[in-house]
Amino acid sequence: MRSSQHLCIAALAAALMAFTSGSALAQKRYDTGASDTEIKVGNIMPYSGPASAYGVIGKTQEAYFNKINAEGGINGRKIKFISYDDGYSPPKAVEQVRKLVESDEVLVVFNPLGTPSNTAIQKYLNGKKVPQLFVATGATKWNDPKNFPWTMGWQPSYQSEAHIYAKYLIKEKPDGKIAILYQNDDFGKDYLKGLKDGLGPKDSMIIAEESYETSEPSIDNHIVKLKASSADVFISITTPKFAAQAIKKLAEIDWHPVHIVSNVSASVGGVIKPAGFENAQGILSAAYAKDGADPQWDNDPGMKRFFEFLAKYYPDGNRLDGSTVYGYGVAQTLVKVLQMCGDDLTRANVMKQAASLKDFEPDTLLPGIKINTSPTDFAPIEQLQMMRFKGEKWDLFGDIMSGDLSN
Amino acid sequence: MELFTNQILAGISTGAIYACMALAVVMIYQAIDHLNFAQGEMAMFSTFVSWQLMQWGVPYWGAFLITLAFSFAGGIAIERLLFKPLAKAPILTNVAGFIALFSIINSCAGLIWDFTIKQYPTPFGSSPFLGSQLISTHQAGMIGVTVLLLIGLYFFFQYTRVGLAMRAAASLPESARLVGINTSWMIALGWGMAAAIGSIAGMLIAPVVFLEPNMMGGVLIYGFAAAVLGGLTSPFGAVIGGFLVGIFENLAGTYIPGVGNELKLPIALALIITVLVVKPAGLFGRPIVKRV
Amino acid sequence: MSAVEEVVTEHPAVEAVPKRAMTLGYGTSLVVLALLVITPMFVKNFIIFQMTMLLIYGTAVLALNILTGGSGQFSLGQSAFYAIGAYTSAILMEQYNVNYALTLPIAGILCFAAGFLFGQPALRLSGVYLALATFALATAMPQLLKLGFFEKWTGGVQGLVVTKPDAPFGLPMSQDMWLYYFTLVITIAIYIFSVNLLRSRSGRAFMAIRDNEIAASAMGIDVALYKTLAFGVSAGITGVAGGLGAIAVQFVAPDSYTITLAISLFLGMVVGGVGWLPGSIVGAAFIIFVPNIAEGVSKGLSGAVFGVLLFLVIFLVPHGARQVALVGQQLASKFRKN
User: In the predicted model, is pLDDT for residue A81 greater than 80?
Assistant: First the structure.
């Protein structure tokens, strides 16, 4: 009798333990910024100042999160997107990020834009153990999980892209003479380093380099100088306005080198069309995302979702503007990560899930390009495909190349 | 030697941009004895207005004339509404007003037309000018229009009653009032004309640099520099100043080793300051005699 | 275009402010001081950080007030001296491991020399021309900082990350709070120094030059010396502010010190009241907080809202906060009479 009573009690105890440990496993865990009903996502963008063209990214993301909320949120929680203007000024960025973390108490700082601003806030965010997730810059230094475990990039780094061009030139035009026009800031210098590293011993192919400042109204005279170097390859490490000026000037002075333009300025609507389709024939570039101006994606299921989103949630958004495509893609990646977190919305888990993305394909990436991360690989997108401009659109060619910089 | 001539020619073509803007700067200086920071933004806004008209189907010259009238009226309106109340305030407060105006116009343009670049047509075409590959027909046209404007302004200030009245109102307001000149309206007129000239500058510059809200930021600095170099009281000086700045900047970038390319603007400005130290009124300005 | 000389009666570009009106009364000063000392104990670290930046920008605006309000020289180039101070502190701290407190006097002296040197060619310029020269200096500075030649010290376009100091002697306060009180002490010291400077013989010389340069020179004032001295002092104070700024923000980069900063400091001076030293902090508050307010009103039109608010301020109080203070003083004396 006693042993069966013991057994009953034991069985009951065991059952109780199973119950409680089961619910302990399903227990919710939150850090500041997350709760049963909402997840606070912080962001800084240059809505004013010299880089205000990129403010569209923030607006696209806000609209995207509105869509997710309208569709039920993430695991039942609504996203509260708090985005502040930093005017592309590092001191302002520091102030706004501190406000997000200490005053608004967000869970993560998502897609802050600009290398200077991100450099300014990196130490602070890592010190406070707040994720600096999917930073909006292609600078190569964001892939450093050992020293900065809370910082992760998203887009292919400038150096990876430059490596791909270097590989292409070594293969297709080994005796070419290269002239480079680059913007005199972190973007331009990072690219330039990538090109030189990628060419390796063949960097003697570079015979002329010209830098320009964004305060210059026109870069025409730099082009004139580069043409005088009698180079037959021209690499344009430029932002949209200057890329368009370069394309136009090259046609005007009747100079037809192999023309490579950086991905940030490859937008058909934002750069090529204003510069003139007839001037841009044969230009090379590389891409990781689909271009909203390219009719070949009109029936692509992912892009159709993107166009529907724009129509319903962000009608002012211009599908020709690469920034809208970008904002959508990176926001979708964040939503995926937050979904993967389930009910464990601690900052550490957010980083853990972000570092466990396997073959994730947002709607807007080119077919075959996938997002992969791991605890030692904080560069989500490393692949690009080269393309050549023909007619009124870009023709992708070749294999998907990995610009992986094996550190 | 070929590089040298090429850079001079390229300098002349960028210089035309600066010269255009410098004329508008001189115009406003003649009217209010000060530089208007918002001049560039007003020109940009006018250019956007003309672009919008063309998007709605108005042909180029129609849009050009409508924009000119709009800018003239707009300049007068801004002066009457925003700066007449500040007439008695210290000059520095007025400068703060210019900065506020800059901020407002730039922000509104960004909201209305967004920040992607737009192509802007030119009535002069874009083919090489006289076979030269360095100056296109548009740039030659730009230089031509600038020279025409210059001649027009010269005649206006030297030989018309209104021009003379404006000069009087700017330099000796009390005496001007005593002879019956309505100094207040002269200032408004100056603003209107400066806005109109600015709009022409904008419409000429946009085909080269592409139209977007931040297009005039850099141009304005160069316009100031060119106007100051040439002499703020001399439209002729402003135009020459513009070309000189363009040429010098290019030569500095090409021939000063190492830093020349990265320090083009500071070097150009340093040159201008040096000239000012030697000739404080600029190359062609009238020497100013100060009375106690 | 004729060869006729243009004769002008020189209107002072900067209006005269009577000396005794340049500072606050004792009572108000004590109240403000008390507020500045006590508030940080009750607010979050982030607010303390903002207050530190308020003091730093206030100091920079104060320096500009000495230059423009005091000696009548128009400057749009203060951001250059601020940058030199900031980078001096950053480089000394990060590359040479100098104690942060020591970097400030070094930054100050270096900038004093820079300002003094710049004041020399600026002697022959005034008004609009001086504005352009200082504008040139401000635009040149970011590009100088990016020069490849200096890269191994400045970090080039990437800038330098600066380590924030901990409170000394194990005092139980956060880094932010310690830095705030450190900044407060320095700010008060600079303020007292500036007030005394303007009340001294040098200050009187500055103001004589501001009001009528030719008359001042006729009275025997060494105009050249005092004008360059004004530039030097102003630059030195701005340099100290810059150094403190570098420590507070923990980062220096060329993009932090553009012409936008110089224009902001200028606006701060105008809003605070040109020549009225206590107004510097009001001006600093305007340039830090009003853009945030404008952003709150409308993200897309934040610039326009800022411009409109600025216009409102200058329409209502064209002489800046000093006008408000004067009105307040008049009201207070009316109360006392009743």
Answer: yes
Q: Is residue C324 part of a domain?
A: yes
Distance CA C277, CA C283 (A): 10
Task: Give the residue on A whose Cα is nearest the Cα of B18.
Answer: A217
Q: Tell me whether residues C8 and B236 touch, CB distance under 8 A.
A: no
- Taking an 8 Å cut-off on Cβ atoms, the answer to whether C125 and B280 are in contact is yes
Interchain contact, C10 vs B102, CB within 8 Å: no
Contact B92 C2 (CB under 8 A): no
The pLDDT value recorded for residue C6 is: 46
Residue in A306, A309, A276 with CA at minimum distance from that of residue A291 = A306
Which residue range forms the structural domain that includes residue C266? 33-337
- How many whole angstroms separate alpha carbon A179 and alpha carbon A173? 14
CA–CA distance, C269 with B95 (Å, rounded to integer): 12
The whole-angstrom distance between B127's CA and the closest CA on chain C is 35
Cβ pair C286, C48 in contact under 8 A: no
Q: Using a CB-CB distance cutoff of 8 angstroms, which residues of chain C are in contact with residue B78?
A: none
Question: Would C6 be classed as within a structural domain?
Answer: no
Please name the chains neighbouring A, where neighbouring means 3+ C-beta pairs under 8 angstroms.
Answer: B, C
C311 in B contact zone (CB under 8 Å):
yes
Q: What is the pTM (predicted TM-score) of this model? A: 0.89
With beta carbons under 8 A apart, name residues in chain C contacting B259.
147, 149
Look at residue C124 and tell me if it is in a domain: yes
The CATH number of residue C76's host domain is: 1.10.3470
Q: What is the pLDDT along chain C (338 residues), one digit of tens a residue?
A: 333 444 444 445 565 555 555 556 677 778 888 888 888 888 888 889 999 999 999 999 999 999 998 888 888 999 999 999 999 999 999 888 888 889 999 999 999 999 998 888 888 787 778 888 888 889 888 888 888 778 888 888 888 888 888 777 777 878 888 899 999 999 999 999 998 998 888 888 888 888 888 888 888 888 888 889 999 999 999 999 999 999 999 999 998 898 899 999 999 999 998 888 888 999 999 999 999 999 888 877 888 999 999 999 999 988 888 888 888 878 888 887 76
Kindly provide the b/e burial profile for residues C131-170, where b requires at least 16 CB atoms within 10 angstroms of the residue's own CB.
Answer: bbbbbbbbbbbbbbbbbeeeeeebbbbbbbbbebeebeee
Contact B14 A220 (CB under 8 A): yes
The candidate with the shortest Cα–Cα distance to B141, out of B5, B16, B227, B27, is: B16
**A224 neighbourhood in chain B, CB within 8 Å:** 6-7, 10, 134
Q: Could you tell me the strand order of the sheet in which A258-261 lies?
A: A206-212, A178-183, A233-237, A258-261, A284-287, A383-390, A393-402
- The predicted-structure confidence for A183-216, as pLDDT tens digits, reads as follows 988 889 999 999 999 998 888 899 999 999 888 8
- Chain C interface disruption, residue of B221, B261, B273, most C CBs within 10 A: B273
**B154–C contact, CB cutoff 8 A:** yes
In chain B, domain spans: 2-278
Each residue's pLDDT tens digit, B180-232 = 888 888 889 989 999 999 999 999 999 988 999 989 988 888 888 888 888 88
How many domains does chain C fold into? 1
For residues B70-96, give the mean pLDDT. 91
Is pLDDT at A15 greater than 90 in this prediction? Answer: no
In the B/C pair of chains, how many CB contacts fall below 8 A? 173
Helix B161-171 and helix B183-209: axis angle, to 10°?
100
Q: Which of A215, A221, A274 sits opposite B217 (nearest CB)?
A: A215
- Using a CB-CB distance cutoff of 8 angstroms, which residues of chain A are in contact with residue B3? 225, 228
- Picking from B11, B118, B134, the nearest residue to A253 by CB comes out as B134
Q: From chain C, pick out residues whose CB is under 8 angstroms from the CB of A99.
A: 46
Distance of CA C87 to the CA centre of its chain: 17
Residue C19 belongs to a domain? no
Tokens coding C21: 């009106």
- Domain B2-278 CATH (choose: 1.10.3470, 3.90.550, 1.25.40, 1.10.10): 1.10.3470
